[in-house]
Amino acid sequence: MIVTSTNASRWEFDLIVIGSGISGISAAIQAAEAGLEVALLSKESAIRESNTWYAQGGIVGESESDSPELLEADIYHAGADINNREAVRLLVQEGPRLVNEFLTEKIGVPFSRDENGDIDLTREAAHSVRRIYHVTDRTGQAIETSLVEYLGRTENIKVFEGHVAIDLITNVHNSVDPQEVYRPARVLGAYVLDAATGKVAIFFAPSVVLATGGVGNLFLRTSNPVGATGDGIAMAHRIGAEIINAEYVQFHPTVFFHRDVPRFLITESLRGEGARLMNRRGEYFMKRYSPTELDLAPRDETARAVYREMEEEDADFVWLDARSITGIDVRERFPGIFEMCMKVGIDIRREPIPVIPAAHFFCGGIKVDTNGRTGIPGLYAAGETACTGVHGANRLASISLLEGLFWGVRTGMQASYRPERLATALKESVPDWVEPASVEDFDPVLVSQDHRAIQTTMWNYAGIIRSRSRLLRAQADLNYLSHRIEQFYQSAKLDRRIIELRNSVLSASIIVHAALGNPRSRGCHYIE
Q1: If 0-12 CB within 10 Å is exposed, 13-18 middle and 19+ buried, where does residue 213 land?
Q2: Does the pTM exceed 0.90?
Q3: Could you report the per-residue pLDDT of 361-386, keeping only the tens digit for each?
């Protein structure tokens, strides 16, 4: 059931899921099928809009040439060997099978198949074998579409589109009962803005799953949609949840660059099929940076190589040359990329593709255990906003969708073990949302300018290649912005953009603080 707008000021559920990508929808389905009454919140006007929708390459599945040990070794290699070993072992042993059981058989995702009717497997950088399921180059769209369709047939779920979570509610932060301060902190729900009406309602539940995606839109150049503003990170931090590995922000080396069209991802699978990176002088340069793995080196190495070539030539982009791909029809295998490039007159069969590196994936996040639980009772996190430790210092390609699915299902299952509703007295002790005494209409130019200042600061000072002096400048600039934005937030009429701006500056500050605290270069945290 989709709820677009309502006048209710208080709702109550067994579980609230904030976010509608693969992890959020999977958690909601799992919990609802266990009998829980679930609210699924999306700040977007259409729930399919998420990082999942934009994923091109694929998801690691089962392969006869693969083994848990081989996949485990590849994950460690990409992650600079600082991965959480318990989480990695759990994922490699159970995750690929879940792709078949949950996505293929239950949800009905139409993965691409070969001439024999078997699932077609592709390869991406730092993978030893072909093990990646895909739907041409529109894997995320196919997964999200299938999940949303299944969601519509699932009872016990109310979907709230256009509802923006403002802050999580806890007993120690929000109850007016003075005795609650002396009790252990626990999550009670969230304050939520209905974007259509401008009203704020309370959503109560004994359990909340944060599945709000990543932080890509904190940077000037990103492959992420505009909603990737670190909302879950900021909300969890404000109530005292631990954020770990925040310095590890992965940059994808190949995002389409053209001044007349929005940037979009050029999947790593293109290089897996034989495309090569080339500088403006026509040189295939990866042999200088990774003589063994060449264009299939881990993303952190490849992104830095592209960045250095652009610096050396004072160029806005490098080329990705797909002309040498043989054995497949690139128009059929990569229809999305082919069509987007043709819109600006680039035939990838005959011309190289202009690409740049861009912020892509957050390897850190809210610290969770192997069941998705944070250190605060009742609060769970899954997907990119969580940190299971699977990725270590750098994510292996096509592991993100697998992690999102695996811990989405696992978190939904774990949350279903705690279905007791909150006590009436405790709910009554939480006050309704109070607006400032004098509400100011905000100037949208100021909001957009502050957001651009955050993006520019993060790109220039906390981006692909960092230094201590740059990070200190970023910290100083963000401290100034934080103070100004918080003052603005306290007096302005609430709006999605203001909520995102507040979350953005806090999440950016967390990333910079973590980067300053780690002087050692590893993976996608590179100190020069």
Answers
A1: buried
A2: yes
A3: 999 999 999 999 999 999 999 999 99
